[in-house]
Amino acid sequence: MVIAHPMSHFKFKNLLTRSLMVGVGAAASLCLGLVPSFQSSRVSFSSAAYAQAISNSDVQSYARSVLAIEPLRQSAYEEIKGISGSVPRIECHRPSSLNDLPGNVRQIAVSYCNQAISIVEGNGLTITRFNEIRVAQDADSSLLNRIQQAIMELR
Fold this sequence. Notes:
Radius of gyration: 24 Å
Order of helices and strands: HEEHHHHH
Number of domains: 2
Largest sheet: 2 strands, antiparallel
Number of strands: 2
Shape: elongated
Number of helices: 6
Structural class: mainly alpha
Strand content: 5-15%
């Protein structure tokens, strides 16, 4: 009868500690919006925005949306500026940015947001996806170039 030599207590503890550290690190990075990537013995982290590639179709939809929204944005901006003298930060995906606005300004902002959302969805994107692309272009110059090229081609 052969009895296998059990793993030494030290080796087992070392393996358990390493596994636990990697697991905790990966979980923490995901909670912070980072995506862990394992290459040979190295672990690196990148922004979650890069986790999902942005297709040419998404770039085209984004560019069409931006071109259609921009005149509406400029008009709403000028109208709000004429009423209140300054234009507060308005984020259509955050109703709280609209709730504190005075009546006339809120009405203009809500109208603009409703039109912008309709345009984005009419071009085949969700508001979440539109915002993901907007954020990603700030961090990715090649994506920004793709979007600028699509806009030039659509004009």
